[in-house]
Design brief:
Elements: H1 8-14, H2 16-21, H3 76-82, E1 91-93, E2 101-110, E3 113-123, H4 127-140, E4 145-146, E5 153-163, E6 166-177, E7 180-190, H5 199-216
Length: 222
């Protein structure tokens, strides 16, 4: 049994109650999403969550009208590889409007190794609004770089933090596809060595999950 005291930040992440009560949205939330538009157009041969309804005068068509089920956005094999010991089904975090924003979380402590994965989908009113939000979030996170071939645009950044001598490395990938935003957060720690996984491991893991999540939108570039 692991007897080492956990840093406060990681202790909070290991507690399901704290996960739901604390700032679990801090990494992925932007300005409050606008209320869902009343009614939806009929769809035919269009990506899941997208709409083919003709726009009204002066209104741009929305490619995506609803957020997909987030816990189905990452294949079980990928979850097992990135978060050993985690329940493959994941846990969806409550949202005030599941049409516009949904997040799934997986976390596990196997031996001394801890891993955490969050996948979020956010639906905006237009491509322009999603693009503006994407650019604002990228500006807030310096030191990263673009991820080629992922959605219309994508950005990846990895940071190392230390608390009470315990290192944690966290990777964040943000991608935009039309009016949808996909945000993936992947982090890890080793409580035996107090070291964090390598930058390459965390970055590649976050990008792998992000590619699956973008593909889950339907019609996105996976």
């Amino acid at each position: 049994m692991l007897s080492l005291p956990l840093p406060l930040a990681l202790t909070a992440r290991l507690s399901p109650v704290a996960v739901l009560a604390c700032a679990g949205w801090a990494l992925t939330s932007g300005p409050a999403a606008p209320p869902a538009a009343a009614g939806h157009g009929t769809t035919q041969n269009t990506p899941a969550g997208s709409s083919s309804a003709a726009p009204s005068a002066g209104t741009a068509a929305k490619t995506y009208t609803t957020a997909p089920a987030p816990c189905s956005g990452v294949p079980s094999a990928t979850v097992t590889a990135l978060v050993p010991g985690a329940k493959k089904a994941g846990k969806e975090i409550p949202s005030t409007d599941t049409t516009l924003r949904r997040t799934c979380s997986w976390n596990a402590l196997k031996g001394f190794d801890y891993r955490w994965l969050d996948v979020s989908f956010e639906i905006r009113e237009s491509d322009q609004e999603a693009g503006k939000e994407y650019e604002e979030r990228v500006k807030e996170r310096s030191g990263g770089g673009p991820v080629p071939g992922l959605g219309a645009s994508a950005y990846s950044v990895v940071n190392l933090t230390s608390e009470d001598g315990q290192q944690t490395r966290e990777g964040v990938v943000m991608a935009r596809v039309a009016n949808a935003l996909v945000v993936v957060t992947y982090s890890g720690s080793d409580f035996e060595t107090k070291k964090a996984p390598g930058t390459d491991e965390i970055n590649k893991g976050a990008i792998k999950a992000a590619r699956s999540a973008v593909a889950a939108l339907g019609g996105g570039q996976g």
